[in-house]
Write a structure and sequence with these properties.
α4 links the parallel β4 and β5 (101-103). This protein has a five-stranded parallel beta sheet with strand order 2-1-3-4-5, sandwiched between helices. Strands 7-9-10-12-11 form a five-stranded mixed beta sheet, with helices on both faces. Strands 14-13-15-16-17 form a five-stranded parallel beta sheet, with helices on both faces. By secondary structure, the protein is α/β, with parallel strands linked by helices.
Length: 831
């Protein structure tokens, strides 16, 4: 196989050298001769060279000059340099200037040929590595650019999707609090549950995309480990109880009370696994076991230690075939297609959980036996103080040690866990799997100090068992503690039962111990019937506040206003940050709910300006007292909260906004401004007595971006339009008149912006017009505005004039349509 032809440049004043080299290399190389440095550099940039031979013996000054220029301005790819020099000083200087090899004359043709071949092989490898490195750098830059674009897209998508979801979920929640028929409530509950399910899917997709883009961040902080796990179990216990499943948790006593890690992400993974376990289990139990797998000194933190925690979530559900286990943790996949159809889900939860666990230094895997259940394992790394103490409820407890306890539960895992816990405290446990077995044990002259009885047991429930126990003379005064599902209580009023308080499942060690001590040492006869507490005072009476809602989206304004009104407040509204400042200039507000993305002045800029004016309260008296600012945003990125806090906001409220979230914010922050609010109680808070009328600002609602409908459709969806007007003819005429005037002005503004090539204004006005028309049911007009909005956002207005003509024609069709409707013949706007 012939060698590829090489290109060699000879720099020097002796042509005989080029002749000698050419004869030695024959057809292996193409040689060019340059007599001076300038000619050599010219040849080098005209034709890439593989090899350069510099003859310092025949032309020392020009040769050294060429080497210096080559070092200062090397071509790409750079050639290999071979120098012929007679003395050691020239050779040393040549090496300093980048020569690969220095030799002396006379030239040995065969030896030079061998050196050349070896050098070219080395150069080829080197050039290959350089090329590969450039490709890798180019690929990395492209990937980083793609990740940045994906991150920006996620932020925009989050806002766009969550904004209409806010309207759906919040409005349904408000509607469910009004008088409804059973049928209507059933429909609304379905809408609400479906909306929450859709929001969960959106959150999963955003979480996975953030992980893929490298934008998911962990937030390490100290937290009470057992409290967080128990809260998570409580969160899922209601779902488990609906299917009559026992939810059980055992935490290794060696795990310290306080650890450092990302409790939110640990909880997210655990909730996902527990939700799956409940979904795929029809009977039996779900058992969570958390063990301390390893502990070692934390690197560079001598006062801390790193703990590896091993979580195992075991269920008694349908199980998974061994050949399907490998698919579990792949995104958008589920083990069985039939399972996906039956149980639903996106197949993203486990993929997200696995990636989160890996971010926390752990791993995730699963074991399963079809028909018998599955166990999902994961590990995470957390930090703890080197001298961290064990929880208070761990180890022998003097008060209850050596006492006999009877544990009655039909679930073997629950019996085992409670027995182990009692043994740990020094108690002497006896377990019974049924009411009949418990009666037999007691009738066998076994004496107990206390009984723990599950309320929900087959054949005979716990309350009935307690009544029978107290009919036995030796156990007539035996204290009984009931185990009840979260959210329920034992009906002990029909029996003479001495007990303190029932404890809820999943059983928490501290709660378990406390209930035993109360039952033993502070016994009470049957609890008095529970009297429903009087309704709390309206929130506005407890915390009289002036509230300002700042949002440019009318749906968000309406939803937030209704929620705040239901809490007893009468909020003021502002459509952007500038209007919010104008409102505060006129009167003081205690609490401002501030949207982040608004025209003219966004929420961050407005907040910074408010905080700046507060520094000079003498010149700005309405800014003298504390002003709480809470961000409202549909963005889901981690950095958004930091941006809000950095701008001076006090808290962060994610959309969709729910009544409990708003109530929680007010209850959390209102006490800090309560004195000021009371002293400023000039403004008496009024509870609205009637539904507020829709205003002009409320017409600009966001809408789903659907493709243009068929022209066979009517220009107005009257069912949607009538929903907005509640069937009131006067209201309908008012809405039509407002739509005519607003749309006519907006079309003029769009056409003016197109003539001025102002794409930004086209996009902004079209967006507002699209929302208003979609809200009122203009099914064919809204998609035209959507296309104009997209053109405006793209910056290119090609085709915009044609769309304006279509919009004008459709606007006239809408006017003719309304003129033909009885009672809706509102005069169109003057041309």
């Amino acid at each position: 196989m012939s060698q590829p032809t090489s290109h060699i440049l000879v720099v020097g004043g002796e042509p005989a050298l080029a002749t000698t080299l050419s004869a030695a290399l024959q057809s292996e190389a193409v040689l060019r001769l340059a007599r001076d440095a300038g000619e050599g550099m010219k040849f080098l940039f005209e034709q890439p060279m593989d090899y350069v031979v510099v003859d310092l013996e025949s032309s020392r000054d020009e040769g050294l000059k060429f080497l210096k220029q080559l070092q200062e301005s090397p071509p790409i790819p750079a050639p290999l340099v071979h120098v012929f020099a007679a003395n050691a000083e020239d050779k040393l200087q040549a090496y300093d200037l980048g020569a690969l090899e220095c030799a002396s004359k006379p030239v040995d043709p065969k030896l030079f040929q061998a050196r050349l071949r070896a050098s070219l092989r080395t150069k080829k490898k080197f050039d290959g590595m350089i090329s590969e490195q450039r490709e890798l750098i180019s690929a990395r830059l492209a990937a980083e650019s793609s990740a940045r674009a994906k991150s920006e897209f996620l932020a925009a998508m989050s806002h766009e999707i969550r904004t209409p979801m806010n309207g759906v979920i919040a409005m349904v929640g408000l509607l469910m609090e009004t008088p409804l028929t059973t049928e209507q409530r059933g429909y609304l509950e379905t809408i609400h549950s479906s909306s929450e399910a859709l929001l969960a899917i959106i959150n999963d997709i955003l979480d996975f995309s953030k992980i893929e883009a490298g934008k998911m961040e962990l937030s390490a902080h100290n937290f009470d480990f057992r409290a967080r796990i128990e809260e998570t179990m409580d969160l899922l216990s209601a779902k488990a109880n609906e299917k009559l499943l026992d939810l059980i948790c055992r935490i290794d006593p060696a795990i310290p009370t306080t650890v450092e890690g990302d409790s939110l992400r640990i909880r997210q993974v655990l909730v996902n696994l527990l939700s799956n376990a409940i979904k795929f289990t029809e009977k039996g139990d779900i058992f969570v076991q958390i063990q301390l797998a390893a502990a070692q000194a934390a690197t560079e933190l001598p006062e801390r230690k790193q703990l590896q925690l091993h979580f195992a979530v075991r269920d008694s559900g349908i199980g998974i075939k061994p050949d399907k286990l490998a698919k579990l943790f792949k995104p958008f996949q589920q083990a069985e297609q039939s399972t996906a159809r039956h149980y639903g889900g996106t197949g993203l939860g486990l993929a997200i959980s696995k990636r989160l666990v890996e971010m926390m230094g752990g791993k995730m895997w699963a074991e399963s036996v079809p028909g018998e259940g599955s166990t999902f394992h994961f590990t995470v790394n957390v930090l703890a103080d080197a001298n961290a103490k064990a929880p208070a409820a761990i180890g022998r407890q003097t008060k209850v040690a050596d006492l006999k306890i009877l544990i009655v539960d039909d679930n073997a895992t629950v019996r085992q866990m409670l027995s182990e816990q009692a043994l740990q405290w020094g108690m002497i446990p006896t377990a019974a799997s049924s009411a009949d077995e418990a009666i037999q044990i007691i009738r066998g002259d076994e004496q107990f100090d206390i009984a723990i009885v599950d309320v929900q047991m087959p054949d005979k429930d716990g309350v009935t068992l307690a009544a029978e126990i107290h009919k036995i003379s030796s156990a007539a005064m035996l204290p009984v503690v009931f185990l009840t599902p979260l959210g329920t209580r034992a009906e002990g009023n029909e029996t003479q039962i001495a007990f303190a308080h029932g404890i809820t499942k999943p059983v928490k060690p501290a709660q378990f111990l406390s209930a035993i001590e109360r039952a033993l040492f502070s016994p009470k006869k049957v609890e008095a019937p529970v009297v429903a507490p009087k309704a709390d005072l309206p929130l506005a009476e407890r915390f009289p506040l002036r509230i300002l809602l700042v949002d440019d989206n009318s749906i968000n304004q309406k939803v937030a206003a209704r929620i705040v009104q239901q809490l007893g407040y009468k909020p003021d509204l502002a459509g952007n940050g500038k209007l919010a400042l104008d409102a505060i200039d006129k009167q003081h507000y205690n609490l401002v709910f501030m949207d982040m993305m608004m025209p003219e002045m966004d929420g961050l800029e407005a907040t910074r300006e408010i905080r700046e004016r507060q520094k000079n309260s003498g010149a700005n008296p309405n800014y003298a007292s504390r002003i709480l600012i809470v961000a409202m945003t549909a963005h889901a990125m981690v950095a958004d909260r930091e941006k809000c806090l950095a701008a001076g906001m006090d808290d962060y409220l994610a959309k969709p906004i729910r009544p409990n979230d708003v109530r929680g914010i007010i209850e959390k922050w209102a006490p800090q401004v309560q004195p000021a609010a009371n002293s400023a109680a000039a403004a008496k808070i009024e509870t609205p007595k009637s539904e507020p009328q829709i205003s002009k600002s409320e017409l600009a609602a966001a809408t789903a971006q659907a493709p243009a409908p068929s022209t066979n459709e009517p220009p107005v969806d009257m069912s949607r339009f009538n929903d907005m007007s509640a069937g009131d003819t006067a209201m309908s005429r008012e809405l039509i008149d407002m739509f005519y005037k607003q749309t006519a002005q907006q079309l003029n503004d769009i056409e003016r912006a197109i003539r001025g090539n102002d794409a930004s204004t086209v996009g902004h006005v079209a967006h507002s017009c699209k929302g208003a028309s979609a809200t009122l049911g203009m099914t064919r007009f809204s998609p035209i505005m959507l296309q104009l909005e997209k053109l405006g956002k793209s910056g290119a207005l090609n085709g915009a004039e044609k769309l304006c003509v279509e919009a004008r024609n459709e606007f006239k069709v809408i006017q003719k349509f309304f003129m033909a409707q009885p009672g809706l013949d509102v005069p169109p706007p003057a041309a």
